[in-house]
Amino acid sequence: MVTKSEEDQLNRLESQVDNGGGGEWEYLCLVRKLKVRRPDKVLKHGLAILNDFKKRSALGTEDWTLCEQVAIAAMDCQCLDVAKDCIKVLRKRFPDSKRVGRLEGMLLEAKGLWAEAEKAYSSFLEDNPFDQVIHKRRVAVAKAQGNISTAIECLNKYLDTFMADNDAWRELAEIYVSLQMYKQAAFCYEELILSQPTNPLYHIAYADVLYTNGGIENLQAAKKYYASAINLTGGKNQRALFGVCLCTSAIGQLSKGRNKDDKESPELQALAVAALEKDYKQGAPDKLPLLTSTLKSLRVSS
Amino acid sequence: MRFGFAIGLFGVVILSHAAYSTVQYRGLLKIMEEEFSGPPLNVVAELLVGLVLCTWAALTVPGKFLSIHPDSEENRIVSLPDNMDFMIFNHRGRVLPSQLDLKLKH
User: Fold this and answer.
1) CA distance to A67, A70, A78, A95, A120, per residue, from A90 (Å)
2) Which terms are listed as keywords in the entry (chain A) (predicted)?
3) Percentages helix, strand, coil for chain A, rounded to the nearest 5?
4) Closest B-chain CA to A139
């Protein structure tokens, strides 16, 4: 989970290394810790460190981790020679390592040799059928080839064994959303919220799926989840604020024909609108009239 | 920071002195065969002074306190980590020319 202070630190370090101000190793460690994807920068600065003998020996034993990180970044940037060199160096240093074997499999994937990659991963799984990362790479191979149904099958089988893996649940939810299977996606997001209830982004994603599904109960549940996301982020997440406004107006539209029970208090929408207007006045004051007219049209139609 | 540390040390010394005087006072009471109802007033005053000094030192020596609210400005979660385990290399960046002529020197 990337918190605001960590994001600020990452941006600051990124601008610092881009302008040649040093601190590359710190930046690379932060990227590794936060698990963000910055292949071009990692490749450029990591390779600079690896090629400089003085800086490399200053790292001690950590330079193998850096080698692995640079290899993956090189594969992401399609610089396959650099990746091959890094993996060769790693293989020479760690001849019997599963981790290096996994990198070799990923290199086959990056080259587009899906069958060889699949064969390599299956042989790894024969040795150790409980290797989580290899299972996930197989799903990635299926996804990269475009066999979404195979990917879903593999992922479901993986989740039967390893039910606590949040990344896998998240991946499955995103695949289902891309296929518009919203009920199944909602199930996946429910699992995620159960395991990490204080993460507001899962609440927002779940509320998005419920809102897309439609129907009055789903809309009411979506509104509750947007409200809980506002609670968990201290009101700073604009997506949740907009979500509350949209849900209220959609509920109002759907229940226009019925007699209004009106147990829904209009306070929540009023507060969300006030918070949005304050944020826009601070952040983007020239867009404020656009915002007010949009919100007014939402309120009028409900 | 040094000053806070010194103050803390001084507070601990005062507290241990108060403990020692209470023990001595009890010994005295045993000789005089009276009940021990509580430490004498000056020891109580010494205890309060030691408490204040130690508390002040404990609050200033560790430095800046971090926020523990999950919804505070520093702690709120802004983005999820990119799912690196399921990363695929078959993306649009594949057809972009790699402008950098990079090689690993070995």
Assistant:
1) 7, 12, 19, 8, 18
2) Endoplasmic reticulum, Membrane, Repeat, TPR repeat
3) 80, 0, 20
4) B86
**Chain A contact set for B73 (CB, 8 A):** 4, 234, 236
Task: Please report which confidence band the pLDDT of residue A257 belongs to, taking 50, 70 and 90 as the band edges.
Answer: low
Give the tens place of pLDDT for each residue, B71-94. Answer: 888 888 888 888 888 998 888 888
Q: What is the reported pLDDT for B70?
A: 82
Select the residue from A34, A38, A63, A78 to test the B interface by mutation, using most B Cβ atoms within 10 A: A78
Same domain, A34 and A63: yes
**Count of CB atoms within 10 A of residue A248's CB?**
23
- For B70, the closest of A81, A145, A198 (CB atoms) is A198
Q: What domain count does chain A have? A: 3
ipTM over 0.95: no
**Contact check, Cβ <8 Å, B86/A112:** no
Q: In sequence order, what E strands does chain A have? A: 2-3
When CB atoms are compared, the residue of B77, B87, B93 closest to A78 is: B93
A222 and A126 assigned to the same domain: no
A189 inside domain: no
Band of pLDDT at residue A60, cut at 50, 70 and 90: confident
Q: What is the mean pLDDT of residues A147-155?
A: 93
- As a whole number of angstroms, the distance between CA A293 and CA A290 comes to 5
Model's pTM, two decimal places? 0.85
Q: Is A13 inside a domain boundary? A: yes
Question: What per-residue confidence (pLDDT) applies to A50?
Answer: 87
Within a domain: residue A188? no
